[in-house]
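=== RUN LOG ===
request id: a7f3
mode: sequence -> structure
chains: 1
length: 338
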Amino acid sequence: MSRKLFEPITFKDVTLKNRIVMSPMCMYSCEAEDGQVTNWHKTHYTSRAVGQVGLIVLEATAVHTQGRISMQDLGIWDESHVDGLCTLVEMIHEQDAKIGIQLAHAGRKAIVEGPTYSSSAIPFNDDMEVPNEMTIEQIEETVEDFRQAARRSKEAGIDVIELHGAHGYLINQFLSPLINKRTDRYGGSKENRFNFLKEIIKAVNTVWDGPLFVRISANDYNDEGYSVEDYVEYAQWMKELGVDLIDCSSGGVEPAKIKPYPGYQVQYAEALKKEAGIATGAVGMITSPLHAEEILQNDRADLIFLARELLRDPYWPRRAAIELKTDIESPRQYERGW
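=== RESULT ===
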């Protein structure tokens, strides 16, 4: 029986050797608060490539200094960041893996010195400051920030770009009616709330011709917010703009009580794949190789995004191959122990 987990898949001209993806996870490891790649990043990401993960997606990488989730986040707002990213690309490519980058702006959830910004002047919670509602000029400047970040990604040799439109960060703050209370062309209707992301996608596509993913939060966990049915339409619009895959997560727009269980977000990937006709990635407490294989065999998603499980076990693909009774190629240096 063919094991879909280890079947190659191609997006545009980039072929992933398997369907296993390392989900972006912030490492909070930039030592000088300058957004530069450190030895930790080189060791951390490359070890998962040695472990035979097909696609390594770098953590949320800030397109602007005021868009960092924390002061220790990776950055891509300056030309000086390209060299470090080039090194990461080279190291991961040496291990026959592909590398993606998640371009991000935290908006009102940024933990930085100075002002924060959002679609509307509504704080995330009582402990955080009230953000500035972005002006039209600031929105246009941020769209340009994403375009320049995409250009730098291409210069660094990145294979895949993912736009971070989930977890209550800036793009998500524009998409969700819970936060976006604007009355201009960026708010007031579903179509208008999509305009910020639409303009980012169009801007990125002027400098980027590789695979483009978007991470979304398909459920706001709030009766006044959006659910997966709303994101089906968003996904259709993204597909029309040339997006290749939707990475389906949930939550984060507002504080919410979520009761997770293994595969609790797979339903969102399945719904968007079937109803919007777009490739999707499944994420959320997927730890068992048999579970991952079931998702793919039943055509519920196209990629399996692993997060904490790859922190616990960088060699999860090897364990999966053993459990699924299939052979995968080992690093030459590890053949006697593989």
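=== NOTES ===
The longest strand covers residues 55-62.
The CA atoms of residues 29 and 39 lie 9 Å apart.
=== END ===
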